[in-house]
């Protein structure tokens, strides 16, 4: 927990800075709108955390999000009745993609960087091969509701985010979480003490796939069908997790901090926008902050692991 | 693919190259390459085309030279246990730096080339220092540097800029018989890297650090310096690739690196060539094979006019399948 | 662009011929390097919030396009893809040869809906002509370097005509110049900085698009109204011209442009930006867009904020037209018609037949207005389908374009 403290300080500072520039920001509607916007990335980061803490990478989530939205649009094709079955299917597909990623990585011993890079190519190729290049069909208003609508004053996305966060925290406090971290810290030691490392890592990948499915439902709901919906999300999610002080290579960091990392990233975007930093310089500022944050986080942590797992 | 491995003892096309390098992981990729060429020749012949033609051989070399040079650099950092995600933006930056300086005419070519190499080396130095001194994971460090370069590009350029003197275009377009100059440049880079890795002290240290940094450190290797050196080499390779691209495009372009996907594709080529992503195992010969494999695959796709989405699926499957086979060999070996 | 570059390249092409020949074989295209300098206009009117004028702005091209908007095109009225505006016909007898033909196409990419719709229309157009024996198309996947190699490869395939849709204007110029002496070249969509192709096919252009939308807003939004301009990304010539023409119109008007933002063509980002602006300014009175792909997301931002949707422009994509019709928007849809993908095939056959073609083939570029909206609504077509595909009578419609009849 000590390691993850800095991210909360940074997040708080950013939120204060935003509030200074925009006094309405802390009003409930504006703040909820911010949380709603951040929800998909936070959920993706939570999912990515389970993979990273177990010592792996998941580069496929961005294209998985795109694929899910495009699949949903084609299958639903505007009909209300198809909404719920398709949502169940999307969740199943997310889990399946994770299962494949996990099995190829753990059973065939392909480095997860490559497995998920391959999955990224396969998913984005296959889904557009199927739809003939660009999205077809349309999402139903019912499908859109989760990403767009709200329950009273609280957006559905925020509620889903709260449930996701609670589930993630619970999972990490359970035995599962401890064995996952143990597998990431030192898989041989974990295996010797009876942890089924391949299985536990595969479950980590499945959680990441599941989070991509949920994020896809929220993003598709928020803004509708688009072929670019998931673009670059994998790098953003990994960045968020790392910002939260989670160590690439596994074994260290908390899921709450990973989610805080995602909020920080989103707050940073909002702040840059508010202060009128042009779109052009945005990536540069982001680059400096990521390197800086991770470097600061590493200062108290001398035992370095090999660069890439 | 599994079948190919079982008939491994049959003499394969790339045998001279691997004996030269002595790196065993390179063997299957050349075997796969030979089989792919055979398959491509068959498929294209069935389609009514001609696969093994002068134009096609020249085309395959032209298509693979830029990626090949980047991948050679990427091999060096990966062998050292690191990786570099900043090469794509660095290539774009270099193409612009080169084209803007060379706009001065023939006399400006040398300053242009020198500046590009210096800029590249500096970026490599920064990458290396962030990784070793600030202890930032290579993935994040080079991603962060990539973002910083991107911001610089977005801020300063809003489209192609600069130009190069006509004499400089010879690098991109000339050929000696069936061998384009660009391929010779690639060969020179690859041979230098091979020499560095297998015949110099730095090379041995790169393998040692990538194999086990802790053991290397205990046996007296200054691991930090080795990683920094590897990154400088990788970035300089990206600089050379940028120069080659400028000689093809005749102008600098802020998107040429990312459009080409040189970051992830170079990593894919390296691991296809049998170099372990974790470092310490593999070599340049394999990478050359990996790049050629991707280029021949591309060429077959082109001949058969395969849909670009189908190409992605095939590339993904080939990548994962190849890595699974390597992993299997390593366990059974 | 074309007018300015022609002057530039008359000399350039000559200079290229004197290019020193190396001792070994050279595939170097015969051209000198393109000059990147385009006459940048002076800084624009300050205080309008529109910023500096784009360095891509060329007054002469702007004037030419403004004139073409009202000009009467020649050619069959029901086939706009065969029409042309102010054609300066050139003789093609030199290229005349008997069929059957082998046509080749170097495509920049099929990475967005606009290109996909166009690409399908082009393939269907090919299937209409029996005299085309072979049609070879290579997809450069958005990579300049690959397209250069593709163009070189196509030159060895015995093509009777080579159609090129360049990925980038400046960087593809050497490759196109290299192909010109060997085969009749037809360029469309984006241009190149040489006039060596036999014909260059394009709709009127970006200035006309941007001006159409901006003038609509100037007419509909009361003076002093706050305008939000949404652009995809900077630095793309065909998009820069759209914005620079809009800037000219806004600078002359009483409207206040409160923001010019880049959306990356991402619907979620667009929606977030618009939501932020509504929050910050309370009310936005008009939205200008340089492309329609995310127009629906912008409209939804107003709906979700519980505000009436102000005057807005989109493009001829079905999702926007549907929204426009259902939500009764005050809107206009300038177009960059996908039917231009049919024209290169027609042009190639004309050239090989020795018929005259325009040197610069300016296709009409209609805007969809309220009164014409109903005729462009195509239920059953995918949301990202472009209504001006000119493909309704082509074989395989609507299934090949992803629709249902």
Automatic annotation (TrEMBL), chain A:
Domain of life: Bacteria
Key word Cell inner membrane present: yes
Main location: membrane
Keywords per UniProt: Cell inner membrane, Cell membrane, Membrane, Transmembrane, Transmembrane helix, Transport
InterPro entries recorded: ABC_transp_permease
TM ranges: 82-100, 112-133, 153-172, 203-223, 229-248, 255-277, 283-301
Membrane topology recorded in Swiss-Prot or TrEMBL: Multi-pass membrane protein
Subcellular location field: Cell membrane
Any one GO cellular component localisation term in the record: plasma membrane
GO terms assigned for molecular function: transmembrane transporter activity
Protein name: Autoinducer 2 import system permease protein LsrD
Highest classification ranks of the organism: Bacteria, Bacillati, Actinomycetota, Actinomycetes, Streptosporangiales
From TrEMBL, chain B:
GO CC annotation: plasma membrane
Main subcellular localisation: membrane
TM region positions: 29-46, 66-89, 109-129, 136-153, 176-197, 226-247, 267-297
Membrane topology classification: Multi-pass membrane protein
Domain of life: Bacteria
GO molecular function: transmembrane transporter activity
CDD domains documented for this protein: TM_PBP1_transp_AraH_like
Localization in the cell: Cell membrane
Name used for this protein in its record: Ribose ABC transporter permease
UniProtKB/TrEMBL annotation, chain C:
Gene Ontology, cellular component aspect: cell envelope
Compositional bias per record (Low complexity), positions renumbered to this chain: 28-45
Compartments in which it is found: Cell envelope
Assigned keywords, A-Z: Signal
Residue stretches making up the Periplasmic binding protein domain: 105-355
A single GO molecular function term of this UniProt record: carbohydrate binding
Family affiliation: Belongs to the bacterial solute-binding protein 2 family.
Name used for this protein in its record: Periplasmic binding protein domain-containing protein
Organism expressing this protein natively: Planotetraspora kaengkrachanensis
